TrEMBL record:
<keyword id="KW-0285">Flavoprotein</keyword>
<comment type="similarity">
    <text>Belongs to the GMC oxidoreductase family.</text>
</comment>
<keyword id="KW-1133">Transmembrane helix</keyword>
<comment type="function">
    <text>Long-chain fatty alcohol oxidase involved in the omega-oxidation pathway of lipid degradation.</text>
</comment>
<dbReference type="InterPro" id="IPR007867">
    <property type="entry name" value="GMC_OxRtase_C"/>
</dbReference>
<feature type="active site" description="Proton acceptor">
    <location>
        <position position="589"/>
    </location>
</feature>
<keyword id="KW-0472">Membrane</keyword>
<dbReference type="Pfam" id="PF00732">
    <property type="entry name" value="GMC_oxred_N"/>
</dbReference>
<protein>
    <recommendedName>
        <fullName>long-chain-alcohol oxidase</fullName>
        <ecNumber>1.1.3.20</ecNumber>
    </recommendedName>
</protein>
<keyword id="KW-0812">Transmembrane</keyword>
<dbReference type="InterPro" id="IPR012400">
    <property type="entry name" value="Long_Oxdase"/>
</dbReference>
<dbReference type="GO" id="GO:0046577">
    <property type="term" value="F:long-chain-alcohol oxidase activity"/>
</dbReference>
<dbReference type="GO" id="GO:0050660">
    <property type="term" value="F:flavin adenine dinucleotide binding"/>
</dbReference>
<feature type="domain" description="Glucose-methanol-choline oxidoreductase C-terminal">
    <location>
        <begin position="507"/>
        <end position="641"/>
    </location>
</feature>
<feature type="binding site">
    <location>
        <begin position="146"/>
        <end position="161"/>
    </location>
    <ligand>
        <name>FAD</name>
    </ligand>
</feature>
<dbReference type="InterPro" id="IPR036188">
    <property type="entry name" value="FAD/NAD-bd_sf"/>
</dbReference>
<dbReference type="InterPro" id="IPR000172">
    <property type="entry name" value="GMC_OxRdtase_N"/>
</dbReference>
Amino acid sequence: LLLCGAESTDKAYPYDKKFSEVPLEEREKLMYQWANSDDDDSRLNFKIFKTFILNTVYSKVDAKGYNPTWEAIGYAGPDPNSMKATLPPKPSALKSAVFDVREHPDLRGVLKHTGYTLLDDISHLKPALLPSNKLEDGEDVIGIKCDVIIVGAGSGGSVPAQVLSTAGLKVLLLEKGRYFAREDLSLLEQPTFSELYEEGGFLATDDVAYSLMSAAVVGGGTCINWAASFQTPPHVRQEWAEECGLPMFTSEKYQQALDLICKKIGVQPNATVESFQNAVLRKGCVELGLHSANIPRNASPEHYCGCCNMGCRRGMKQATTETWLVEAAAAGATILTGTKGLQVLFTDGTKKEKKAIGVLATTLGDQPKKLIIEAKATIVSTGSIMTPPLLIRSGLTNPNIGKHFHIHPVLGVWGYFPDEEKNPGASFEGGIMTAFSAVSARWDTVGYGPVLMTPSFHPGQYASVVTWKSGAQHKEAMRRFRRVSQVVLFTRDKGAGSIGVDKKTDEITIEYTLDPYDEEVCLEGAEKGLRVLKAAGAVEVGTHHHDAESFTFGKSTSWKEEKKRFEEYLASVRSKGLKPNRLPMVSYHLLGSCRMGSSPENSVIDAKGETWDAEGLFLTDASVFPTPTGLNPMVTIQSIAYCTAQNVVEHVKSSK
C-alpha cells in the first residue's frame, strides 16, 4: 500500500493485493512513476529494483554457464579466445606463497614453514589494543613477527611488497579477498562480480546515487581494470608540486618511478585491431576535427579482449599478479587471504605522538582466529573506501582522514549502429579502451573536466543501466545490445565527498554530492559525446536518464530542420541535469580520502608516505592522491607506492 497506493487495494478481504496481483500495465506505470518521482525514496526504490532484478535476469547462469536471454540479445558469453591461455603461466612462486586461511587450519605451521617468527608471548602488544578489540581470556591468538606488515595486496600493496622483499626484508601481506590464478577465472559476469568485487559489485554511496566499482581480490584493481595505463598528467604533477607543496612530483626521481612502473608492467600505446566502440569514438572525433589519441595499456598490441573487467585468463594484461607479486613471492613474501586488518597497533613515539608497532587482524570464515603481527613498519593499502575506517578504528584523529574523497564521476551516452558491415564487431568484443578524447578535459585552463572513453558492458551491467520504461521497451533495448556503442565521460571532479564510520553502528559511511561545476562539465561532455556518436554514423542516440527520450536521425524533411531538432534535443539533455538517482552514475576510480600534503592541517600523510600522527605507519593506495588525476590512476598509484617503499626501507633499516 505504501509503495503502490490505491492500485494495491481490493474490495475483498484482506482488501489488499500482492504486487504480482496488480495488473501488469499498472505495475509498469507504478515503477515508472517511482523512477521519475520527486520523492527521493521512490527513486531509490526503483533503482534498487531495477539494478538487482535486471542484472540478475541477464547475468545469472546455469550449471553449464549459460543464460537463456543471451541468444536473443546476440551475446556469446565469454569470448572463446579469451578463455585460451595465450601466454605460458608465470612461475608458481606466487601460487605457492598465497595461503587462504580458511583452507589452512594449521596457520601456525604455515607461517613457521614460510620463515616467520611466531611469538610465544604477546603480552607486550596487548596494551596497544583498543577497548573494542580487547582479547577474551583464553582466546587463541597467533602472534607473528616480521619486518613489514602490509594490509591490502592490491595495486598499492603489491609494489612495496616487491621492493621490500627484494631488499632482504621479511614481508607479510594480508588480503581479505581471494587469489584467482588465471585458470580460476570464469569470465562469467555474475560469478565474477560476486567474487572479485567489493559488495559483489553493488557498493554504492549512502544515497545509492553512485555505484562504486572496487576490487576485493589479490591484485586489487589491476586484475579487473580495463588496462589503461596513463602516467600522471603534467598539469596534475605541477598542481601537486606547486599548490599542494609536494615538489617530489615534478622531480626527476618521480619521473624515473613512472618510467620504471611502465616498463615493469609492459605499457605500450598500440592496438593491432580496434574494437567496435573504440573505432566509433575515434571516427566521430576525426569527423568533427576533435582531439583523439591512443590509450597506453599494460598489454600487448594484440590484446583484443572485452573481458578485462573480469580478469585475464590469457595473462596478457600485466596485473600485479603477473609482475610485482610474483617477484615479491620469489623473494620470500607471503600473502594470507581471507584475512582482514582490524586495527593498527601503536605505542608512544619518539619523533611523533605515536609509533606503529604492527596490526591486529582476524581471519574470515566459519571459525575466525585473531592474529597479532608485530612489525618494524606498517603499510596500509586497502583502498580509498577501506583505509579511512581502518585508521579511524585504530584511534587516529587527524580530521583529514576520510575527507577530500574523489570518484571521477562517470556518465554515459549511447548510439545505435545497426549496420555491422560499416562498423564491424560487437559492443562487448575487443580491447575495452584503446582510444580517448580530451576535448572537454580543459587541460590547458583549469584542468578539471571529462575525458571521453569507451566502457566495458556485459549483459547484466548494461541491462541495469539502460533506460527502463516498460518490459517491452526494455527488451527491445536489450535486443540492440550488440550494436550499441557507448561513450563514457570520466570527469576530474572539483567537488569531494567523505568516508567515515558511524559511531553507533560502526558501519562505513560514504557521502558524495556532485559539485555544480562538475555537473556542468559532465553535461558539456555528454553533449560532445552525442555529437561524436552522430558524426560516427549512429542512426539513433540517447542518454540513460530514467525519463530519457532518444533522438533518431533521418526523420526530418530537410538537413536544416534535423540540425535544428538535434540542437533542441541536446539542450533538453542539458536541462535534465544529473540529479541523484534520476539516471545511473558510476565510479571506477576512488581517490584521495587520506591525501598526501605539506602539513597535518590539510593532509593525512607527508611526502614520504608516512602518517603525520604516527611514525612507522605508511599509506600506499589511491587514498593518498592530493587531488584527482582525471585519468586512470593505476600507474600513479604504483609510482607513489614505489617512492614510498624506498622510504620504508630506510625507516626499517634505521629502526632499532
